[in-house]
Amino acid sequence: xxxxxxxxxxxxxxxxxxxxxxxxxxxxxxxxxxxxxxxxxxxxxxxxxxxxxxxxxxxxxxxxxxxxxxxxxxxxxxxxxxxxxxxxxxxxxxxxxxxxxxxxxxxxxxxxxxxxxxxxxxxxxxxxxxxxxxxxxxxxxxxxxxxxxxxxxxxxxxxxxxxxxxxxxxxxxxxxxxxxxxxxxxxxxxxxxxxxxxxxxxxxxxxxxxxxxxxxxxxxxxxxxxxxxxxxxxxxxxxxxxxxxxxxxxxxxxxxxxxxxxxxxxxxxxxxxxxxxxxxxxxxxxxxxxxxxxxxxxxxxxxxxxxxxxxxxxxxxxxxxxxxxxxxxxxxxxxxxxxxxxxxxxxxxxxxxxxxxxxxxxxxx
Amino acid sequence: xxxxxxxxxxxxxxxxxxxxxxxxxxxxxxxxxxxxxxxxxxxxxxxxxxxxxxxxxxxxxxxxxxxxxxxxxxxxxxxxxxxxxxxxxxxxxxxxxxxxxxxxxxxxxxxxxxxxxxxxxxxxxxxxxxxxxxxxxxxxxxxxxxxxxxxxxxxxxxxxxxxxxxxxxxxxxxxxxxxxxxxxxxxxxxxxxxxxxxxxxxxxxxxxxxxxxxxxxxxxxxxxxxxxxxxxxxxxxxxxxxxxxxxxxx
Lengths: 365, 250
Fold this sequence. Notes:
heterodimer, A: alpha/beta, Rossmann fold, 2 domains, 45% helix, 20% strand, B: alpha/beta, seven-stranded mixed beta sheet, two-stranded antiparallel sheet
């Protein structure tokens, strides 16, 4: 390509990139609010809890400028979850954000949404547990988000690992929820939500539309229940839900592979830990260490097909998480072959630095 | 010409499929639903109503009417109604629950809906006990009342006296709210109160109606005894519109 036209071509690319993305100096929680709006969110219901509070505050601040956005600071998380459901029934893209013990209370509405196949959307800003625990960070809400409630955990759970992803996934979860009609969550944590960085926010895809679930047609009324009179009748409903869930796995599950090609050591990590692991992989690779990172973006369902093919040649698999066995358990159930090569690095409620992960992999005999 | 429903003395908005009714013989709830249906017919509101129901015996009404019905959890029909109404303020939203849902597990939401003056109508069926689970003591059980969890009679010094829900909710309500108590022994008054409550919502305000009801199955009473106990309830829980107590009133 002659130099001049190459320059023109380059300018064109830059223009397109600018149209599809912008650089912002922004916190993770601010990115969540912006992303949700991109995803078509219209209403927010919440109750203050660290480290999710800035999402409630950020939404309300935006709503004071944009009158089409509605909100309610409810009396507790149970009410905010059920009011979210009320708005969803009316066809609005509504969501909530919570953490820790609030996330526990939220299981009441979420289990109803799971039963009635409602597109419930929640942001879970993880904090330490059990109980009040600590207020900023952990990866201990994986079990509750993925398998909480008194059902079989037919939910979709994403895990964001940086501020840009807080934006992108916060938009995407609305489309996933409304398309497949399962409760859908994005896990973050307080370090992710409160860090302020300059990052590129890519314009998300066109959102999937919402629709009225209670159709307001009295000649053909919508009657929705979550309680059934007979076990076989309910079993049929659950079988249908399970088969719908199995259908969505290939369409929804996603993961990122980073320098996995040729790696004999593979790190499996999600969220903030995966971010640290990425830097560690760079440094280890610079030392000539054959290591790569597999980062599930969805924890439930897991991107089993891709992960299985990526770990085939791995000799050792490091599972690193700020929790005790939560992510590992989800993983080993669907990928039992991981178990024999697994090196468990579990630190409930505590974070990992890149240097620490570098050392762990380097010094592992 | 009379419609099929009218021939059987039933409101037109009632869903024929829901018959025969799932309620026990003699249950007060089917009477309440029938009169609610009559009010909806009379006010020509069938096309505007959305009903949210609790669990407990109210869940048996999940397909009772020909308009949208959402069955929720115990004490949660109120917050679902609040969210729905915010999203769709053209609808008339009714939350239907029992006294356990309203005054025990769901009291927080009921009080705050009243406190915020959310424009919804909460209908609370008060039969002084948890009926679906077999007649356990409720906040509304009368002192001395025998239930499966107060086999020696409710000890008011331990479990509190008879719980006056509407009176409590009224204390935090806005000046334009309408809160009243009715009874299944007086259907005309019940319909009047329901109509007024619906009109309160049309005016953009919170309304609540508690209806004293009978539960022959768990009370283990026949027809006469059921209404005898109901008249005892009416003496302890006065029917009519509830008025806010002023602060200096003793």
